[in-house]
Every structure is written in C-alpha cells, then in structure tokens.
Amino acid sequence: MARHVEATQAREERIERVVAVIGSALVVLVFAVTTGLGLIEGVLAYAGAGALVFYLARKTFR
Q1: Disulfide: which of 6, 23, 31, 59 matches 53 by Cβ 3.0-4.6 Å?
Q2: What is the pLDDT of residues 5-61, one digit of tens each?
Q3: What DSSP character marks residue 38?
Q4: 20 and 61 in contact (C-beta within 8 Å)?
Q5: 16, 17, 43: which is closest to 31 by C-alpha?
Q6: Does residue 55 contact residue 19 with C-beta atoms inside 8 Å?
Q7: What domain count does the chain have?
Q8: 32 Cβ partners below 8 Å, 6+ apart?
C-alpha cells in the first residue's frame, strides 16, 4: 500500500511541475504577444491562457 501511495504522490508531483512549466511559458508567450495591445485585449489573452492551463491541469488529474 505504501508503494502505491508513494508512486501516486511522485506522479502528481511530476504533473504539477509540468503544469507549472507550461503555465510559466504561457505567461511569457502571452506577455510577448500582447505587448502592443490594449488593456482589454491583454486581459482577454491572459484569461485565455489561464483557462487553458486550468483545463490541462483538470484533465491531467482525472
């Protein structure tokens, strides 16, 4: 039982790291893409990137 718990925790840690890296890359990408845009467009871009990361994380943990 302990091995199963350890394996599950290790898997979840790897997933969390991957999601964190993808999220960080998206923030940098969105910042670079939206540099010349207005406030509304920038907010929408960040909201879209956040929704994508949320979707990926939720789908991964199912």
Answers
A1: 23
A2: 898 889 888 888 888 888 888 888 888 887 887 888 888 888 888 888 788 777 666
A3: -
A4: no
A5: 43
A6: no
A7: 1
A8: none
* Residue 10 lies inside a defined structural domain of this protein: no
Per the domain annotation, does 49 fall within a domain?
yes
Tell me the residue range of the domain where 31 lies: 19-62
pTM over 0.70: no
Residue 3 falls inside a structural domain: no
Q: Residue 29: inside a domain, yes or no?
A: yes
Residue corresponding to tokens 């670079």: 32
Q: If we measure between CA atoms, which residue out of 45, 53, 52 comes closest to residue 29?
A: 45
Contact 57, 19 (CB under 8 A): yes
Give residue for tokens 């999220």.
23
